[in-house]
Amino acid sequence: MDGSKEFIVSAVVDYWATAGITIAIHIGLLVRTIVRHRGGLVLIASMEVILTMGVTLFVSVPPIDWRPDPPAATIKPNYRPCYSCSGDCIGG
């Protein structure tokens, strides 16, 4: 995947075009069921439109990383590690 701005803009446009077409199809089906006076299907089509719009909005929100930032390193640049039994540690 390319992280360029053109790629990101293209992906966003593709997403909203696909979402718009999907919502338009569901709204068209809802209108068709209303015109044909199909009570049960109107209820189902209404639920589909609501569900489709909810999923569309949910998926369009970017994922958020809720993990905290890693702690900053507190080790000094001239730090030399001390290994046990090496004999070069401070204090023995």
What features would you describe in this structure?
The protein is rod-shaped and about 90 Å long. The protein is mainly alpha-helical and 92 residues long. It has helices spanning 5-35, 39-60. The longest helix is centred in the N-terminal third of the chain and has 31 residues, at 5-35. The mean pLDDT is 78.
Write a short abstract of this structure.
With 92 residues, the chain is an all-alpha fold. 58% of the residues lie in helices and 0% in strands.
Q: Report helical residue fraction.
A: 55-70%
Strand count, sense and barrel status of the largest sheet are: none
H/E element order = HH
- What gross morphology would you assign? rod-shaped
Alpha carbon gyration radius? 29 Å
Task: Calculate the mean pLDDT score and round it.
Answer: 78
Which percent range describes the beta-strand content? under 5%
Structural class: mainly alpha
By DSSP, the count of extended strands is: 0
Q: Please identify the oligomeric state.
A: single chain
Please give a handful of descriptors for the protein shown.
92 residues, mainly alpha, rod-shaped
What is the element layout, followed by pairings?
Blueprint: H1 5-35, H2 39-60
Helix pairs in contact: 1-2
